[in-house]
Design a protein that fits this description.
The protein folds into 2 domains: 15-35 and 217-346, no CATH class; 58-212, no CATH class. The protein is globular and about 65 Å long. Helix 8 crosses helix 13 (309-324) and helix 8 (226-243) crosses helix 15 (339-346). By secondary structure, it is mainly alpha-helical. The protein has helices at 71-80, 82-88, 97-108, 112-124, 128-144, 191-194, 202-212, 226-243, 249-253, 257-265, 267-276, 285-292, 309-324, 330-334, 339-346; strands at residues 2-5, 58-60, 152-156, 164-167, 170-174.
Length: 363
């Protein structure tokens, strides 16, 4: 299993094993929700690991590439770190090694790389906080999957080339992608995506990548319905929540706190739009994209509706299934490939209500 993410959950229609990332909360036309009316979010089940933590191999390599002073050194580095070379720095996209090395050398000898490195040290310090978060997450993973060994973690700066790559054996993190709002240099992304590339999203994004992978998430890829994709994402979010039981749902899915609360309070409205538009069993790629893929808003539901709302609905279906089937373990859930069966047995069925016009939803 190998997965590379460019800032979060990607469209499953373009890569069956891809993952991993939201805009404003929304309400019924006749209801106004106060932003101050926050509900306290409880932790999910916290595994009892007996205080034992896994030993995580953690390599902090962010100083290595900026210290390169010759192309020969760069070749040596990439020879020693082939996974970084191929997946974070995308060597296969270059016509030959010479072009690749020349391009990378120009980037890592430019003055801006020193600024990126300085900002990285300011944001991440010695990396101990990130290592602790990852250790906790992989300790929980080992609780559910005792035979699974934690991957080697390598942190690096990429010149804003890429963010995360995961496989069964290695987790690669481009720290400079996650410097946050105060950084001098940031990835060239839309604003609604930029707010999700800061250090608080690194570990949740990594766990989502593992949760979407076919190592854990068994999927019937012959099922092309929107429901099937929604359930795949729903299982991934549920998986990540068990690895990070006290991480807010809003952080996992990349919504603001107001957005996640608005989604919960207006679940019937969302569901009613899905029913009215016959979304669940649609196999039309364009229709599925409207509700599931990365977008700033789901305008088909309403002008204030966060993007990827179909992923959120899939998560609620999976949550409902697990609530009504307490005997089912996480590995057993993840092994279920039949989305329609899971949906039917979940009993998920919010009240269907009369919905307002698609572009007339107001806060």
């Amino acid at each position: 299993m190998t997965i590379c993410a460019i800032c979060g959950l990607t469209d499953l229609t373009s890569h069956p094993n891809s993952i991993m990332r939201s805009v404003a909360f929304f309400v019924l036309a006749v209801i106004v929700i106060s932003c101050s009316n926050h509900t306290e979010e409880k932790c999910a089940f916290v595994p009892d690991t007996g205080g034992k933590k896994i030993e995580l191999e953690f390599l902090s390599l962010e100083d290595s590439l900026p210290a390169i002073t010759s192309k020969k050194q760069l070749v040596h580095y990439f020879t020693a770190h082939a996974a970084q070379r191929n997946f974070l720095f995308n060597r296969p996209s270059y016509p030959d090694d010479s072009v690749f090395i020349n391009d990378r050398y120009a980037i890592f000898t430019s003055p801006s790389i020193d600024t990126l490195l300085m900002n990285t040290h300011t944001v991440f310090g010695d990396g101990s906080e990130l290592k602790k978060e990852l250790t906790d997450a992989f300790t929980n993973l080992h609780y559910y999957y005792p035979q699974t060994e934690a991957p080697r973690v390598e942190t690096v700066i990429t010149g804003l080339e890429s963010d995360l790559f995961v496989s069964d054996s290695v987790l690669l993190i481009g720290l400079d992608y996650y410097l946050g709002e105060g950084a001098k240099y940031r990835p060239q992304l839309y604003d609604y995506l930029l707010k999700r590339v800061n250090k608080s999203f690194i570990v949740p994004s990594a766990m989502l990548l593992y949760g979407i992978s076919d190592t854990y998430n068994k999927t019937d890829f012959s099922d092309k319905t929107a429901l099937a994709e929604m359930i795949v994402y729903g299982k991934a979010y549920y998986f990540a929540k068990q690895m990070l039981p006290c991480t807010p749902d809003s952080t996992l899915i990349g919504y603001t706190r107001e957005e996640i609360e608005g989604s919960r309070k207006n679940e019937s409205l969302i569901w009613s739009r899905f029913v009215e538009d016959e979304v669940l069993f649609s196999t039309n790629a364009r229709e599925k994209q409207k509700y599931i893929s990365e977008r700033p808003k789901t305008l088909e539901v309403g002008e204030k509706c966060p993007g990827r709302i179909g992923q959120w609905v899939g998560w609620q279906i999976v949550k409902k299934y697990m609530e009504t089937h307490p005997q089912v373990t996480l590995p057993e859930l993840m092994e279920m490939p039949d989305a329609a069966k899971l949906f039917k047995e979940s009993g998920y069925k919010p009240q269907v209500v009369k919905v307002p016009g698609k572009t007339k939803m107001n806060q």
